[in-house]
Design a protein that fits this description.
The structure holds two protein chains of two kinds. By secondary structure, chain A is mostly helical. Chain A contains twelve helices and no strands. In chain A, helix 3 (49-83) runs parallel beside helix 7 (146-171), helix 4 (90-102) packs across helix 7 and helix 11 (237-247) runs antiparallel to helix 12. Chain A starts with a helix and ends with a helix. Chain B is an all-alpha fold. In chain B, helix 4 (72-103) runs parallel beside helix 7. In chain B, 43% of the residues are buried. The chains are: A mainly alpha, B mainly alpha. At the A-B interface, helix 1, helix 3, helix 4, helix 5 and helix 6 of A face helix 1, helix 5, helix 6, helix 7 and helix 11 of B.
Chain lengths: 284, 287
């Protein structure tokens, strides 16, 4: 396992320092060194089209990740709270709510691509033809809306799993705490603030850590829904890296972008540790 | 005073009914796209385009035609073989490593655990390029054929899903009382015999759950299969993507293909749900 994960990853860093493209491809690791030129081109070369594309992808990934993660965890907690009440048919409701998570990601992308179509898609039919909320048909799969076209399905698929975890967390909270708080006259909101949130904090923190990483590495949804080039409003770092490396054969640049993405995630893990270290050490 | 109490109770009951209704609405909205997927696969393209869904007269034409539009059977067979093999191998490796981590303190057990976590932090693209280049190099220079072969994909997926599987198996093993094994040892079992006869049997739900986990995620993988295959070992995600690229507008067939791709994992999930959900939530709740 070490061999398959760590050695190639180190190989990736090495490649990022090389001038590897169509012409030098046959030499692989024997390609000429270029030092940090790939990085400089991505980050600082204002005239380079590579930098413009990288900056777009960086911005989109930041937006996509933050909105998706917030929607997933917030929505998951909300639905878990709703279904943790004694509703009639709660078990069946939970199973139904969980199904989006079992639909494979590439089917999710396919399904939503169909739903977003402006002529035959259900979203525009619903908004324009059936309810007349809007009077013109929004275009979802082209231009500025594309970022939302990938955010919404991502939340839709991720939310049920977050709900599942939150639900397990809620179940672990002893009901005596709520009863005692209710006797002391605490309202529903106060009970949520003072009991539920603090006790769920470690669970939410773990979700936050892994979900941010998982979301920042998203590739399938934009790739299947929008093609190998999702356009300047929805191109994520992963789609950019794969396109640069495998279609444009700029393997060195792709490897440099990968390394930057990992560095970004390392910074995120550091920030996360600073914020939530106490929760990790707290007894379960 | 009494009237106030009654109205208070009524207000609470109204609030509770409102929350119930909200729960039903939210679940309906969450489930609606899944329903749409199934319903659309049973319509003709014409009905989908006009938005006049006919629920009473479903047609299975899309399920018949999809196999001819792209070589869907080819992709399905590849997916089934690759994912089953990779999930089996990952579960086998993970059960031995997970057992060791749960039972023994060996030098380096802590760094080993940390490395397992660290592998999850690396994006696929980081080792995708070197693996790709390595496969190409092997193809050109040795008789070892991994590029665009099922064996190559099995190897990659096994490596990919073993780390999390180790964590799942460790938590399952940790939940089995040591006394069971010790009793077997006292009764004259060897350490390995105890593992085989007692522990693995007790951990069977864990093995099933881990297998299902690896299978579900391998089924969903697109990035590596895009780069590491060309025509022989392509799996369902590629098939679906080709569908979108080449037959845009044939939405009924596309949705039918989506239903067919979802069914195996749906079955795998619901068959193992009890153990899988427990395994996945136990780790997160404890951590």
């Amino acid at each position: 396992m070490l061999l398959i994960h760590i050695v190639p990853a180190a190989g990736g860093v090495v490649l990022s320092l090389k001038n590897l493209n169509t012409f030098t491809f046959s030499k692989l690791f024997g390609a000429p060194w270029t030092g940090l030129r790939n990085y400089r081109e991505l980050l600082f070369d204002g005239a380079s089209p590579l930098r413009a594309g990288f900056m777009d992808a960086l911005r989109n990934t930041a937006i996509y990740t933050s909105v998706t993660v917030a929607g997933t965890i917030g929505g998951g907690l909300g639905v878990a709270l709703l279904l943790n009440r004694p509703v009639r048919g709660a078990r069946a409701l939970r199973t139904l709510a969980l199904t989006p998570w079992i639909v494979p990601t590439f089917v999710v992308a396919t399904l939503w691509q169909f739903m977003w179509q402006s002529d035959v898609g259900i979203v525009d039919k619903l908004l324009v033809d059936w309810t007349h909320v809007l009077h013109h048909r929004p275009v979802w799969l082209l231009g500025g809306n594309t970022i939302w076209a990938i955010v919404v399905p991502s939340v839709w698929r991720g939310l049920p799993f977050s709900m599942l975890l939150c639900f397990a967390g809620l179940r672990a909270i002893p009901s005596e705490l709520y009863e005692a708080a209710a006797i002391d006259g605490a309202g529903a909101w106060q009970r949520f603030r003072a009991i539920t949130l603090p006790l769920l904090r470690p669970l939410l923190a773990i979700q936050l850590l892994f979900l941010v990483i998982y979301t920042a590495y998203q590739f399938v949804i934009p790739n299947v829904m929008l093609g190998s080039d999702p356009g300047p409003h929805a191109d994520l770092l992963m789609t950019l890296i794969v396109r640069t490396s495998f279609q444009n054969n700029l393997v060195g640049v792709g490897a440099a972008a990968s390394t930057l993405l990992v560095l970004g995630m390392a910074v995120w893990v550091g920030v996360w540790l600073l914020a939530f270290r106490r929760d990790l050490e707290a007894p379960a | 005073m009494t009237r106030l109490a009654v109205s208070d109770r009524r207000r609470r009951r109204l609030g509770s009914a409102a929350l119930d209704a909200l729960a039903y609405v939210v679940v309906a909205v969450l489930f609606a796209p899944v329903l749409l997927l199934v319903v659309s696969s049973l319509q003709t393209d014409g009905r989908l385009a006009s938005g006049t869904y006919d629920l009473l007269h479903p047609t299975f034409a899309a399920f018949r035609d999809m196999w001819r539009s792209v070589a869907f059977g080819h992709y399905l067979v590849n997916s089934a073989i690759i994912c089953t093999a990779a999930a089996t191998l990952a579960t086998a490796f993970a059960s031995t490593a997970g057992y060791a981590l749960a039972r023994f303190r060996f030098p380096g057990s802590r760094p080993f655990s940390l490395t397992v976590v660290a592998t999850q932090l690396l994006p696929g693209s980081m080792f995708l390029l070197p693996v790709f280049l390595g496969f190409i190099w092997l193809k050109d220079n040795t008789p070892v054929q991994l590029f665009d072969t099922r064996i190559g994909m099995v190897l990659v997926y096994t490596a990919f899903f073993t780390p999390v599987s180790i964590f799942l198996m460790r938590s399952f093993f940790a939940g089995i009382p040591r006394e069971l094994e010790e009793a077997a040892l006292v009764d004259g079992c060897t350490r390995f015999g105890a593992l085989r006869r007692i522990v693995l049997r007790a951990a069977a739900p864990g093995l099933i759950a881990t297998f299902a986990y690896a299978f579900l995620f391998a089924w969903d993988e697109l990035l590596f299969v895009t780069a590491l295959t060309q025509s022989h070992a392509e799996t369902i995600p590629i098939g679906i993507r080709n569908f979108i690229g080449n037959y845009n507008g044939k939405y009924a067939q596309l949705m039918a293909a989506g239903v067919v791709s979802t069914l195996p994992v749906m079955v795998a999930f619901f068959a193992t749900q009890r153990w899988l959900v427990k395994g996945l939530t136990a780790g997160a709740v404890k951590a």
